[in-house]
Amino acid sequence: MKEKDLLNSNWRWSYTYFMLGGAILFSLNLEFSRYAFFLFLIGHIIMGVISYIINDRPLFVHNILFGIVDVVGIYNWFIKGML
Predict the structure, then answer these.
(1) How many domains does the chain have?
(2) What's the domain range around 55?
(3) Which of 10, 23, 39, 76 has the greatest number of beta carbons closer than 10 A?
(4) Contact of 33 with 25, CB cutoff 8 Å
(5) Other beta carbons less than 10 A from residue 63's beta carbon
């Protein structure tokens, strides 16, 4: 897939939908809002792969770091309580 096609592809739109869905879910501050971390993580993985392919290093690092934040959130909300 060409870089230009990748930039305008459904993958970028899916990133937008995952991030918006996560933000809305998180802002509702309900019992199930913690699942927003999974939406954020999926979005950051998608955009991390795209930014790696198009060689956009700042965006790649941005998505890797926020992906780590998402994993920490998933750990705190889902795994830590089970230990």
Answers:
(1) 1
(2) 3-82
(3) 39
(4) yes
(5) 23
